[in-house]
Design brief:
It contains six helices and four strands; from the N terminus they run αααβββαβαα. It has helices at residues 6-9, 19-28, 38-54, 96-111, 132-138, 153-156, and strands at 58-62, 67-71, 81-86, 119-124. α2 (19-28) packs across α4. The chain is globular, with a radius of gyration of 15 Å. The termini are far apart. Bound molecules: zinc ion (ZN). Zinc ion binds at residues 86, 98-99, 127.
């Protein structure tokens, strides 16, 4: 069973008008809770990975909750700005507003951002289970390099 219509989603982040964003939200809006809808969750993660990889970012699935982390092609150690959105939804719900729309905007931002700028993108999983993916992403707090408490540089560059 095809959970996400790849034809609708292909190349649809951004564009000259809202049609690309609308199509991407429609493609993302499938039940995709990590536990209740694992196949939809995995398919959504794959879609996000594919979009970011096609834009030339270094993409990895990280941590026990499967966050998608897309690093720009910049020298190691450079401070980065991260743009994030959670990609899961509440159980058995397409979650178009919460948070397919946010993921679509994040992907549109990625499309408009050169992959050698100091900007990375993170799609968090398991937000609807109590921020599990984003909490995992920022822990343990970085204690080196004079970074702020929530710096993720140690994991980012590991
Ligand atoms: Zn949400």
């Amino acid at each position: 069973m095809l959970l996400i219509d790849e034809r609708r989603a292909a190349g649809s982040a951004g564009g000259d008008d809202d049609r690309g964003l609308r199509a991407l939200v429609q493609a993302l809006a499938v039940p995709r809770h990590r536990v209740a809808n694992p196949r939809g969750n995995a398919a959504t993660r794959e879609l996000v990975c594919d979009h970011l990889a096609q834009l030339g970012f270094h993409v990895r699935v990280e941590g026990p909750f499967g966050n998608v982390v897309a690093r720009p092609r910049v020298p190691r150690g450079r401070p980065l700005t991260l743009v994030g959105a959670h990609f899961d939804a509440v159980p058995d719900c397409p979650g178009a507003d919460d948070n397919a729309s946010g993921v679509a905007v994040m992907l549109a931002c990625a499309r408009e951002t050169p992959n050698d700028a100091s900007v990375g993108f993170v799609a968090f999983n398991a937000e609807e289970e109590g921020l599990l993916g984003s909490r995992d992403f920022v822990e343990p707090p970085c204690t080196g390099w004079g970074c702020s408490r929530w710096c993720t540089c140690s994991r980012w560059w590991a």
